[in-house]
Amino acid sequence: MDVLRFHLFGEPHIDVEQKPLTGFISTKAQALLIYLVMSPGRHSRNRLANLLWSEFADGHARNNLRTALSNLRGLVGPHLDIKRETVAYKRDVPYWLDVDVVRETLGSKLDKQAISRVDEVAALYQGELLAGFQVRNAPTYEDWVLNQREILHGLVLRGLSQISDLCIAQGEYERGLAVTRRLLALEPWREQSHRQHLLLLAYTDQRSAAMAQYETCRAILRDEFGVEPMPETTALFEKIRAGRITPPHTIQYTTPAEAHSWLGRLTGFVRSAVSHSDASSLQYPQGFIDWDSIPGAPPLVGREKEAGQLVGWLEEERSRLIGVHGMGSQGKSALVASVVRSLIGPPPMTGRPGYRSIHSAGADAAPGKFQVVLWHSLATGANLRQWVHHWVAFLAKRKLDLSIGSDELILTIIECMRRWRCLIVLDDVDGILQPEGSAGQVAAEQAVYAELFKRVGSSIHQSSLIVISRESLVDVEGLMRGRENSVKNFWLGPLSSQASQALLHNHGVSGHPMVLAEIAECYSGNPLALGVVADAIRKLYFGDAEAFIENQMPIFDDIWSMMDDQFSRLSPLEQEMMVALGQSQGSLTWSELGQHLSTIQSKQETIEARLSLLRRGLVINQSTGVSLPALIVRYMRERYAPTHIDRTSKSNPNPDTIM
């Protein structure tokens, strides 16, 4: 079967067996084929008729569609699935689409392979989508083209910018220069691309070219917008002019595993320093920032208030212990990472990747600023001695005896938190919690962490410890009484409808506000869920929210897997309560919920179960009653059949079960 090849970037053309496909009876017939190949799924004939012939009455429009489909059937019949009421492009028949190649290369997580394919992407993106392709009297089709054009152009810009960053990180400076030249050809006023280009020119010892590039940037911004470059652009230029930008040094690691842990990276940093200097001349370090362990900080959408609150606790109130909690995938780590990066500023332009010894950085060890910043995920290792060992060795300039007791270990940590202003973030703290029973309890074998939290929250020092978990920690809650300024507990809830819609827009999804609001409500403002569905809408419907809704394609698999893990931690009584709430048609008072339980429970057991559910953030507790978020309701109804709860059970006569 002949393979169709669609070249839609720049002036469009369609080839079959290396020859142009001709024979279209009209531009609209060609436009219809392009729409079908770019828009997966089945499309109703009414929708397609309105897309291209909206100026005609319904009957006339459908006749025109029928004529166009007849023409396409004769040209590319095996590639189309034409039914009485719907039409679809057959994805299982061999074809090639340049838009798909760009989407697959730039639309997922970028890695070294993306760098190797950047030349292919640059060659394919010869211009904007369907450049010069005019379809007369089809405003709906033109709106669709403009929307897709904007989405794909943004994808290419973001993707090439990320590849440029990868080239810098991997030391592929010449390839990075080619990428930034392409970015500046697409958008000469894009200041971020100018900064990347400046840095790459400096790294390749082209200082004069970098200074000329800065003047070019200034001229473009002045001519286009009447503004000067941003402060960070000017600051980079000044560093280049002063000769203070040099390519990052390479650190040698003894094992592959060492390069993937902050302990190994810190060891490599010290080893590299010693190998290039006389050990006796090494200056005492004033601090350490582990840049590589701090997650990337995506743009904050709808979390500005929460970010401001965290900044206030850290900078103004100098809180010692902060718990950040919330249901899985609410964006807890992303929020904290964004706040941390806003406090410590951008990574250094000089020195080794991932590190900044504040002594050598000079003036940025300002009074009141964090001197030590560490981020450690307990999902990668919960042994307190292991992850503290190299940190203490580097800062306190002495080895840590790994055989010391827990009390001395914690005293050593507190000593460092007194001497330096430290910001320590422990992520994925759920890994040290007991797997079953009441929520927020540290497992017995990890009791050293419970003691650490208590000592950090109650001791006098100048540092801050942030713990991130799904469940609110009992130890943090207990410390808050009488320590309102030094110990904080922060619960991160779902995004508002407006913020959810903004998040969808940021992910390249467009549509009527009511449609976006419907998607936001369906996924309860859960950032991960919205990100998953946005990715699906981009890949399957090229960002068209209406097409997604029309095809009734809700996507929950990844989200349900996360929920399965969280639900497995519930006690049997908590599970029974959740099932009852999921099957209710609205909120229930705690007393009404107690009447739906199939077994008699003591008052103490029910109170503990209620508090545990609240610590997990799975229920909405209001004065009018308790209920579940819409996303959890859907999960409960899909995962658990009504037979799990006897809805006809009589009210429990035992007064101890009143909830």
Tell me how many strands there are.
15
Structural class: alpha/beta
Strand order of the largest sheet: 8-10-11-12-9-13
Which strand-content bin applies to the residues? 5-15%
CATH class of the largest domain: Alpha Beta
Q: What's the total helix number?
A: 28
CA radius of gyration is 29 Å
CATH architecture of the largest domain: 3-Layer(aba) Sandwich
Helix content: 40-55%
Overall morphology: flat
Residue runs with pLDDT of under 50 for 5 or more positions? 249-285, 349-367, 643-659
CATH fold category name of the largest domain: Rossmann fold
Average pLDDT, all residues: 78
Looking at CATH, the homologous superfamily of the largest domain is P-loop containing nucleotide triphosphate hydrolases
**Main sheet: strands, sense, barrel:** 6 strands, parallel
Number of domains: 4
Termini gap = 69 Å
Short description:
The chain is of the alpha/beta class. The chain folds into four domains: 1-187, Arc Repressor Mutant, subunit A (Orthogonal Bundle); 286-491, Rossmann fold; 497-552, no CATH class; 563-657, Orthogonal Bundle (Arc Repressor Mutant, subunit A), CATH 1.10.10.
